[in-house]
Give the backbone structure.
Amino acid sequence: MPRIHADLAAAQAAMAMPMKNTMTAALICGGLFGFSTYLAAPVAARDVPGDFAGIVEEMSPAVVAIIVRRAVQDDETQVDPDRLPPPLREFFERRGETMPQMPGMQEPQRPRQTRAVGSGFFVSEDGYIVTNNHVIADADEIEVIYGDEEVRSASLVGADPATDLAVLRIEPDMEVTVAPWGDSEAMQPGSWTIAIGSPFGLGGTVTIGVLSARSRDIRTGPYDDYLQTDAAINMGNSGGPLFNGAGEVIGVNTAIFSPTGASVGIGFAVPSLTAMNVVDQLIETGMVERGFLGVRLQEMTPALARAFEIDDAQGAVVVSVEPEGPADAGGLATGDVIRRFAEEPVEDPRALSRMVADISPGTEVPVLVRRDGEDLRKTIEIGLREPAEPLRTDDEPEPEHEVLGLALSPLPEVVQRQLAIDAEAQPAIVQRVRPAGAAAEAGIRQGDVIVQVDNRLLEGPGHVASAWRDALNEERPLLLRVLRDGDPLFIAVEPIG
């Protein structure tokens, strides 16, 4: 199956370093051939540039190679040569090499140092450099190669794992070339793109392509909004710049989609509109502050749009409001549909999350919501999103066969009335379905509305969990009655495994 590869990339052939499948980005060389004899007039010369030599010559000095060293604890121990088959033992002895590492032998684990290579680019004359967070994460030592093979130690200014961006700084001993930011919002599919970086340690490598798409969500985090390019993005390109046809940075190369780990022409870059905001905050404070609204949101569907008396399926449905949070203080309620935020239309929950994150905490923002068929205007003071708490690891995990695998929220009352659900019921809507859980195996989908459990009216989301435990203890399936796109059906959920 295809997978996303992150690039911390050691250049094995060129740099004699071990390679690691992580996350990369770059741009595939492309060309434009001929013309159509059916065109009434020839294509304007400005639409088909002769080459990009001028931009490459001007911008290549702004791009750097980044060498990262990390201490790694080996999980393997030294082989006892007497336990190797004679042909293998003789092979290594002839070459004068130490025996390979294999599990289950005598010597204790020993730390070793690995090296990896990535890319970056200067954004200021005083030595600030942008790269990917995954390039420098857990680094013990960072070096930057720039100019005429100048090497400088770099310090980490700040990193933002949520957008996979980081800022380094060096003390340059010469004037550096700064890569100017461009407008990623102005880029349209088909626009020329140019990537310069250090794939496999080959510094100054240039690849050419076009913008394939915008606003790609590749499931790496809540703020995914990638530019997609048909660039040949390979190990070592991560953190390098993606230029437009004017030589401006419109993205930071970050990832590829590939079944093999090598480029297949599907690459992704953090858009400059996102990167500029993050980089400015990292340079100024070393951290990123994001706005916080304090709601849980659900995707709008055509059925929900009809229930909420909305002509289109745009907006974000509020399924819960955090008590005493910014939305609660501003008057938002469960069942509201957020239609506009800061005078901008809201397409879906993902777009709203990015919009909120971009607002400085403490800012008052106008919000338009649909409630009970009427439009209401609210003013909300945006809060500060706290860093995510690390997941607890000391709790005993739930046995796999007992995992129901559902995230549920109460169904807004207005939707319950529109769907003609018994007023005494407390239905729950399915927010997420864990792929490996029993609910997924039974065919439950995101957006299903659970109205009954074991032939009894549901008494809220917690009722599903308690009924599931009862079913497990009694070794029987859990019977659910759900509404899917307004149509009722029964689903029996059995333990898996």
Q: What stands out?
A: The longest strand covers residues 111-122. The CA atoms of residues 211 and 229 lie 5 Å apart. The mean pLDDT is 78.
